[in-house]
Write a structure and sequence with these properties.
Elements: H1 9-41, H2 44-80, H3 84-119, H4 127-138, H5 141-156, H6 161-184, H7 189-214, H8 229-261, H9 265-281, H10 283-301, H11 305-332, H12 334-339, H13 345-358, H14 362-378, H15 382-407, H16 410-433
Helix pairs in contact: 1-2, 1-6, 1-9, 1-10, 1-11, 2-3, 2-4, 2-5, 2-8, 2-9, 2-10, 3-4, 3-5, 3-8, 4-7, 5-7, 6-7, 8-15, 9-13, 10-11, 10-14, 11-14, 13-16, 14-16, 15-16
Length: 444
């Protein structure tokens, strides 16, 4: 556990963010290696099937991610106020929410997956593999929610290192099982999904055993769990806007996939690969924002608002430097990066064009996420939801539809930074209005 209310703001945020960043780099590294293995051994149809499954997975789990983030904010603020009894109660309540949600998500996903893929007009040759992959993957949602929920709890307590160790374990195991099931056993797309489910299950089991033995606050046991409706309702009040925001984003990604699907299998495969590279590039901004959100929560809980302002400046400087560096790297090596995933020249060309356009605007995404982290850390999760709704559904999706009809698939790519720019502008305005300061849970 780490108290973020003392010491240099920049150093605290950096030291807290780096383990989270390394952990997610390993996670994305697995996704990239997974795509390289699938693209080179199973072909572009399988590559498109795996890529098409992720927006649907995100739709189903997005509300749960938002609810857990609400509990994490509560945990961070109570921890900053040194109210450890409330911290334990919030943790238990969150675990109950995650367990029930995972059962519901699995059932909905398996029943409706095939119909949803048809609804978004995924190319017919991709649907059977996409459905197979998705149905196996979603069966592991109990352990997936359990692991990511436990990691979120630890981050709320200022511990970003412990999740890193178990995420590395999960990633290495996943890569090994991918190679074993696909290259050696020849299980195809089923092997990709089974490898993921097994690695997530092992990592969750290991982190539970570790925490129950060594951690002072977290003891995970469904036989000795305390659930409080008041804490649940408080988590809903803070978490539901974040949940809706995540759902809005996931549905937006699904809508974009629907637009991309009209351009055929090559474009679907290229978008899937470029999206993986894109996800890797925006990781620093997302992780620094997540770390800063916990920093904000603890310091507002400890009534240290000035540290929040200083932390904001430090986080903006660090994320801007990283974003500009990644823009240069990806623009220079965009074709070589695409070639790692597929030998198909058309797929490479389409994906390289996506990266050339979108990577120029990573700094907009970075600033947007950092300012939204201030609001979330304070407990004001409603405004980031409205900003996301505006940027995605009023700007990004309609503009992508319009431009794709006028200038082809490249119009979809231009809609992405346009949404980021609008979202960033409104976040800046809302920050300086200052209403988010009134949303803090712990009152003085």
């Amino acid at each position: 556990m780490k108290d973020l209310t003392q010491g240099s703001e920049a150093k605290r945020i950096l030291h807290f963010a780096l383990p989270m960043l390394f952990g997610n780099v390993f996670q994305q590294l697995y996704n990239i290696i997974d795509s390289i293995i699938v693209g080179n051994y199973l072909g572009k149809e399988a590559l498109g099937a795996v890529g098409a499954s992720f927006p649907l997975i995100f739709v189903l789990i997005s509300m749960v991610i938002g609810l857990s983030s609400g509990a994490t904010i509560i945990i961070a603020q109570y921890f900053g106020a040194k109210n450890y009894a409330k911290v334990k109660l919030a943790i238990d309540t969150m675990n109950v929410i995650l367990f029930i949600s995972s059962i519901v998500v699995s059932a909905i996903g398996i029943i409706f997956s095939d119909e949803i893929f048809k609804l978004i007009k995924l190319p017919a040759e991709i649907i059977p593999q996409a459905t197979t992959y998705f149905n196996i993957f979603i069966l592991g949602s109990v352990t997936m929610f359990g692991f990511h929920g436990t990691a979120a709890i630890l981050r709320g307590l200022g511990d970003s290192k412990t999740p890193l160790y178990f995420l590395i374990l999960s990633t290495i195991l996943n890569i090994f099982l991918d190679l074993l099931f696909i290259v050696v056993f020849g299980w195809g797309i089923e092997g990709v999904a089974i490898a993921t489910v097994i690695s997530q299950g092992v990592s969750f089991l290991m982190i539970v055993l570790y925490l129950n033995k060594y951690h002072k606050i977290i003891q995970i046991s469904f036989l000795k769990i305390n659930f409080e409706w008041e804490m649940f309702m408080r988590s809903l009040r803070i978490g539901l806007p974040s949940g809706f925001q995540q759902t809005i984003v996931s549905l937006g990604l699904l809508a974009l996939f629907r637009i991309v699907n009209d351009f055929g299998t090559d474009t679907v495969a290229a978008y899937s690969v470029a999206g993986r590279i894109d996800s890797f590039a925006i990781l620093p901004a997302m992780n620094f924002a997540a770390a800063f959100s916990t920093f904000v929560g603890q310091n507002l809980g400890a009534n240290k608002a000035e540290r929040v302002r200083k932390g904001l400046v430090a986080t903006l400087i660090m994320t801007s430097i990283i974003s500009v560096s990644l823009t240069l790297i990806i623009n220079i090596f965009r074709t070589e990066l695409m070639r790692l995933f597929s030998p198909d020249t058309n797929v490479i060309e389409i994906g390289a064009e996506y990266l050339q356009i979108v990577s120029l605007f990573y700094i907009l995404f970075s600033v947007l996420f950092v300012f939204n982290a201030v609001f979330r850390g304070a407990g004001d999760t409603l405004m980031p939801m409205f900003i996301t709704l505006l940027a995605l559904w009023v700007v990004r999706v309609p503009l992508s539809v319009f431009l794709s009809q006028k200038i082809g698939v490249v119009g979809i790519w231009w809609g992405i930074p346009a949404g980021w720019g609008v979202g960033m502008t409104f976040s800046l305005v809302y920050y300086f209005i200052g209403k988010w300061k009134t949303k803090v849970i712990v009152k003085y």
